[in-house]
Amino acid sequence: MLMPAPDTNTIAQKARLAAALAELLPPESVIADPIALKAYESDGLTAYRQSPLLVTLPRTTAEVSAVLRFCAENKVKVVPRGAGTSLSGGALPLADGVVLGLGKLNKILEIDLENRCAVVQPGVQNLAISNAVATAGFYYAPDPSSQIACTIGGNVAENSGGVHCLKYGLTTNNLLGLEVVLINGEVVRFGGKHLDAGGYDLMGVMTGSEGLLGVVTEVTVRLLKRPETARALVAGFPSSEQAGAAVAAVIGAGIIPAGMEMMDRPAIHAAEDFVHADYPLDAEALLIVELDGPAVECNHLLTSVTEIVRANGATSLRVSESEAERLKIWAGRKAAFPAVGRISPDYYCMDGTIPRRRLPEVLQRMAELSKKYELRVANVFHAGDGNLHPLVLYDANKPGELERAEHFGADILRLCVEVGGVLTGEHGVGVEKRDLMPEMFTELDLDQQIRLKCAFDPDQLLNPGKVFPNLHRCAELGRMHVRGGALPHPELPRF
């Protein structure tokens, strides 16, 4: 994985930069020791590692602003970092860059139940928001599997989803406002507690921007009332193709479950051994469907879904009869990623999205790729919205296996695009999918995206080396041909 060549002049100034930053922050909030820096050398994509030049841990928006302004003035690159749970290498450090850790901005600033929102700092854990409002009967809907650890700032950066995003939306659908610090230190606000903001949707632009445009320092999230009833159905199938067909049939019937998840045999066994959720171990594929709402509606939909999954070949079926049983069913799914670590020394977690109707075909072709690369794959899907999470199993200690895993993963993502899908559903592009961007976007498309980055970060100091395979200088994209001293189309206004 090639990253931008480090600037030797910046590296040579490490001591000066550390001393200057220690004047802007408490000394303990600047980390320069090589041993201490190792804690930041990777995020959740541990296949790629790089020790940063320095790490800063600001406590307030003002301190974030001071760090960014200093880095901009000294042309030092900055890599924003939340909890480090990113699975795309979005927080991979740079040898000549400062990691801006946001873990100390971890306060819930306001809970406003009358307006059904909460104002939180970016270092607040996803699950902590729901826990804070649970006694009042509210919750925050997006629930990534890592919600016990991942932070809301990182969720905004990656536009994270979760098992319940099928009905309730991704992070972007549950945000009301953002406070963002730009690379020059300017603090700006997008949105607020009101339902919709006027003008350009800059909050939408910032959500999912992977730390390339600015640093989020405050988030206003939408709170939802907990549904009256929620029940989960677990169905086992003799093949992944039949389970995929059942997913398409449920959605085709006009039913939108709160969540609809799928796991194949390796993932089922790993999760069951880890959590003991009473999954059917004789099944080749498992489908979890959750229905919520008023009890009468929930029961009616459960009857309909039961008929659909049986018609599509389900060989076992169980419906939760208590809240504890429902939570246990989901505990197995949410623990699937760490559970797979019990059956393989390493795994490479992919994240592509496809049209639901192509799921059986894609599963079959992934099985063929598994044979081609001689690597196992465990599949865990947000099946309802076509978001796939194939886990390519490999052993980094065996020469060549990481490279085979990378090629296997790249082919899976190419397959997603080929069948009408996209490269990522919620994990972001980072470095993992960076070099595959031309598979989905033309050069013109990418240039337009880079122009947006240039508008926010003209010197390209924020998280460089991520998302774009070939990052042109902003001046190159702004060139205009002048013939005979005359601009083309002189009748058009210039800005």
From TrEMBL:
Pfam families in UniProt: FAD-oxidase_C (PF02913), FAD_binding_4 (PF01565)
Domain FAD-binding PCMH-type, chain residue ranges per copy: 48-226
Coiled-coil positions: none
Gene3D superfamilies in UniProt: 3.30.465.10, 3.30.70.2740, Vanillyl-alcohol Oxidase, Chain A, domain 4 (1.10.45.10)
InterPro entries assigned: FAD-bd_oxidored_4_C, FAD-bd_PCMH, FAD-bd_PCMH-like_sf, FAD-bd_PCMH_sub2, FAD-linked_Oxase-like_C, FAD-linked_OxidoTrans_Type4, Oxid_FAD_bind_N, Vanillyl_alc_oxidase_C-sub2
SUPFAM superfamilies membership: FAD-binding/transporter-associated domain-like, FAD-linked oxidases, C-terminal domain
Superkingdom of this protein's organism: Bacteria
The protein's name: FAD-linked oxidase C-terminal domain-containing protein
The keyword Glycoprotein is annotated on this UniProt entry: no
PANTHER family associated with the record: GLYCOLATE OXIDASE SUBUNIT GLCD
Keyword Flavoprotein: yes
